Known about the structure:
The complex is a heterodimer of chains A (229) and B (532).
Chain A: E1 3-5, H1 9-32, H2 41-69, H3 82-95, H4 111-136, H5 151-175, H6 186-191, E2 193-195
Antiparallel strand pairs in A: 1-2
Helix pairs in contact in A: 1-2, 4-5
Chain B: H1 2-24, H2 51-61, H3 65-70, H4 73-76, E1 79-80, E2 87-88, H5 105-108, H6 134-137, H7 171-176, H8 183-190, H9 228-231, E3 234-235, E4 238-239, H10 268-271, H11 279-282, H12 290-294, E5 305-310, E6 325-327, E7 333-336, E8 340-345, E9 351-355, E10 359-361, E11 375-376, E12 378-380, E13 390-404, E14 409-410, H13 424-427, H14 430-440, E15 450-459, H15 498-531
Parallel strand pairs in B: 5-13, 11-15
Antiparallel strand pairs in B: 1-2, 3-4, 5-8, 6-7, 7-8, 9-13, 10-12, 13-14, 13-15
Amino acid sequence: MKRVMIYKRFERFWHWSQAALIFFLMFTGFEIHGSYQALGFGTAARLHGLAAYTLIGLWILAIFWHFTTGEWRQYIPTTDKLGAVIHYYLIGTFTGAEHPFRQTTRAKHNPLQRLAYLGFKLVISPLIWISGLLYLFYNQWPAWGLEGLSLGGVALVHTAAAFAMLAFVIGHVYMATMGKTVFSLVKPMITGYEDSREQLPAKDAPDRGTVEAPHQPPSGQGHHPGGSQ
Amino acid sequence: MMGSYTRRIPWGLLAAMLMLASGSATALERASPSTADHERFKALQGPFASGPEVTEACLKCHTEAADQLQATTHWTWEYLHPETRQLLGKRHVVNSFCGSVASNEPFCTSCHTGYGWDDMREAPPVAGNRVDCLVCHDTTGDYWKSPTGAGHPVYESLDPADDTARQPPDLARIARNIGPTGRQNCGSCHFYGGGGDGVKHGDLDSSLVDPPRTLDVHMAPEGADFACADCHTTSAHSVTGSRYLTKARDTQGIDVPGHTDFTRSSCESCHGLAPHASTKLNDHIDQVACQSCHIPAFARGGVATKTWWDWSTAGRLGEDGEPLKIRDADGNLEYLSTKGSFRHGENVVPEYRWFDGQVRYTLRSDTLDDSQQPIEINRIQGSHDDPDSRIWPFKIMQGKQPYDPVNQHLLVNHVYSAVDDTALWTNFDWAKALKAGAEYADQPYSGEFDFVETRMHWPITHMVAPAEDALHCSACHAREGRLAALTDFYLPARDRSVWLDRAGWSAALLVLVGSLTHAGGRILTRRRRKDS
């Protein structure tokens, strides 16, 4: 039995602490928005700010990690197999077809994931950060020459981005259950390792989507995240 | 010997330590003791037949005191507003309570800091001995003014047959025991404004003479034990802290002698401009007055305040022809033949308004528009976009008052007369009373009268609760919070785009339903494939 580390320790730490923080930020954020009362506005606002700073810190670490390890390349969008992956989610998964993408350490995300995560990183998150920081530093606007901004407008952008985040999280959580079993995709995100016992050696090895472990013989075949067979 | 020696050492040490301790404690008495013992002053031995006689004795030493006092609003009851140029003061304004002082002088001027001002159309008496020193400086609590004496104290027992009735004050004893003003002194008038305990202000009533800490953290004996003058600092008998031109936002901060304005009649003058440990809370103080959060409700001391006063129902007598006095379930007055109908409130949640400190009055000479009721007896000014404005708590007093519907102006409420039967409280005849009032004030009067609904704003600033009882954020940051009426700015948790909310929740729901449908389809097709 060969095991390949797909998600490195920092990556897992980053993913799960980010997940926890995002859930907490949504919980406190929608209370600040007035959608419900749970912790009380003051506590919710204080903890929301605290969690936001923590997440910003985490992001600084993650950005550093992405660039020093070259992992940022995982998010370069590609159209290669994109149509096939979309076709799989729309039709193939119902007909018992195999997932067209094979996960490797070089390419751990399928083309659709790449697009989704890139959107998450380049659109939703920056929108939330920028609008959130502006929201937080409302009293400093005059000193920063930002009198022209309206708090209502900033809050609107922040809320819109939060709804986008909520939709992303729901979709993401569902997609994560679409492995061979409900937890087979979540497991490597916890242990780091893809269990490759039942995996046949790679038949084809295009440059994106097959095993290419530089320091290991190419027998450690990663399982794709959506494989149903 | 040995034993007593060893026993003596610790005592000596202890004594030395105690001396060191008391030496290092530099705390002074809260009120610095006087350098004069008035008990020993020959001029104050009495007997005194009247208030003015006492004042003459005072002025022998305090040569400038009368001149000083006579220059203040406490004396003139007149205030020329520097910004609106309105001539205000009790001499001129109409309020939503008793109406106007004019024509009711000996009654209303019982709260004047002088003796014998019985005609409001003329300035108060000029003689120095007409100033009342005792009402502000009595420390015995025994000084009291006659309710109808134009400022004079009671000289003869009101009811000699009743020995439980309050006795006339011993002027000589009071004069020998004078001291700095205390809560009781200011309260003897300011707690009873509007004709009774707590009636007018809502944040000033007799419960503040000896308040628990929860009622007023500053004035409570177990709190800071402040006298009114600790904040309302005085200079030459002039007291700071105006209601006509309020400092709605103090940007000077802590009052440093020689650097600031020498007044402590704002929270900031002691607490500074960043009073909270939390930056977020401090971020509020440019737009929210301290009072808005730190006075969660007024009339908290067990004394109800009037919130509604309808003069139009006054004059109705009982079947026996006698004036009626009806109380509500809480024991508060509900109806008086002399004054009309009332509503009262305790633990009243204030209403909140933007306020830049400027108050504009509807004076008797101002023209009304009775199609726009209620008439604002005073208008407060301010908005979110004005940097001098902050959100302040207010008691909003409402009711109905007499006016001339032809000439469209407020009428003088002539309720009391010591000499003839023109006044409402004597004849219960509005037509007669209002005619007499208009004549007295030399006001044009059509002869027709009616009652117009009015509203008056009273800023709330006393009854500051301990910090732990301040409002929580969610008192305002909520869909239906305390600031629901102030709609000229975006308030988190209250405001939102309903459109965005609908779109956002719909999108999230769509993804959820889509996911569940997708999952259902996968389970179903997988089962079918297995079966086949």
